[in-house]
Fold this protein.
Amino acid sequence: MVETWVEVLLDRLPRSEIAGIYFKGSAQKDWDSPLDYVPELSDVDLHLLFRDSSHVERRLTVESALEIQALVEDSYAKRARAPIHVPRPQLMILNHLMEEPDYCSTPIEAVTTLYGDEYPEAGYEDEQRLREIARERLPSYTGVIETLPLTLIDKPGIYVVSALRSLNWRVSPIGPIVLLLLGMPWREVWLPNRTQIISLLEEHGEDELAAQYTAFYLSGWDYFLSGYTDSAAARDAVTAGIEALRKSAVVAERM
């Protein structure tokens, strides 16, 4: 899937305008256990950086987006005739992310450059400031809990997957963020895979958080393996994800 995206993007966008294409996140890391990647819940995290932000709106129109999406789908179908699952890509425009006031880049060691310039890592000498940002960010993730009841109540079976994915992007980063708050250096918290993150949480005495974090992903696997028919597994995943968010917010409050 990653190779397909790179090929299509380089074919449909002027190469002179692309500064880089990057691969990061859980799919990019080595996997030590099922916790490290859950099909169709975890995403394939790709970042696209234009040399000039003005290129973004000119090149990424509705029409071009649909064309790229269709080409990726067709090319992947030809390349993977009978895939176990179809990876779920998430393409982010790095220009937009870098414009956010509290943007924190990923350590360059945790990013694979697929095309172009080296990943533009922002240096962070003020780790205390990063911890302040993290302390503010964790409680904000729990805001999703307020909207979940009406999101879930009318989504039986396969339909609850959309709510799980919305929950996932908030649950996924809490392990590294909590470790940052507990004193680990910024560069070190984003390098481990999820299996290693959970071990580090346990080493720091956050056993309950580690348990809920683990349960979220293992229940996500059960739900996927059932072909999205095991609604009980989906509910277990949602419950574990909510508890993980709540426990991470407690850590932020006491720091």
Notes: The chain has two domains: 2-116, 127-254. The two ends are 41 Å apart (CA to CA).
